[in-house]
Amino acid sequence: MSGEVGIIVDGEPVSGRDGQTIAGVLIGSGRITWRTAQQGERGVFCGIGVCHDCLVTVNGVEGVRACRRRAVDGDRIEREVRR
Ligand code: FES
Questions:
Q1: Which of 5, 36, 54, 63 allows an S-S link to 81, with CB 3.0 to 4.6 Å?
Q2: Which parts of the chain register pLDDT below 70?
Q3: Which of 65, 70, 77, 80 to mutate to test the pocket of ligand 1 (most atoms within 8 A of CB)?
Q4: Where in the chain are the domains?
Q5: CA-CA distance, 16 to 8, in Å (whole number)?
Q6: Which residues pair with 2 in a beta bridge?
Q7: Measured from the CB, is residue 24 less than 6 Å from ligand 1?
Q8: Ligand 1 mean position to 1 CA, how many Å?
Q9: Ligand 1: which atom is nearest the Cα of residue 49?
Q10: Residue 19 CA, ligand 1 centroid: distance in Å
Q11: What 8-state DSSP symbol labels residue 74?
């Protein structure tokens, strides 16, 4: 659909606006965190690609910064757990 982007987040369909980052789509869907680290639950901290708090797996590729990666229709996003 024009103007929208549809991604799959942990198996659940989520939609956002075309041009949004993955983090933008996740936040727009009500998610605040999407990664479990030793320090606890993480999401966006800096929002500019520096802190790496927002890492997700995108289409099987681990360690993608959600705040820097534009959401593409059909992307499959999985939360990451690092212990
Ligand atoms: S929020 Fe800091 S790198 Fe994405």
A1: 36
A2: 1-2, 83
A3: 65
A4: 4-78
A5: 11
A6: none
A7: no
A8: 28
A9: 3
A10: 17
A11: T
Measured in Å, residue 42 CA sits from the centre of ligand 1 at 10
The minimum-distance atom of ligand 1 relative to the CA of 47 is: 1
HSE-up (13 A, CA, CB side) for residue 10: 10
Q: What CATH architecture applies to the domain 4-78? A: Roll (3.10)
The pLDDT tens digits for 37-57 are 999 999 999 999 999 999 999
Which residue minimizes the CA distance to atom 3 of ligand 1?
49
CB 38 within 8 A of CB 82: yes
Q: What is the pLDDT of residue 83?
A: 67
Q: CB–CB of 73/6 below 8 Å?
A: yes
Residue 43: closest CA among 72, 79, 6: 79
Give the residue from 76, 78, 75, 74 showing the smallest Cα distance to 55: 78
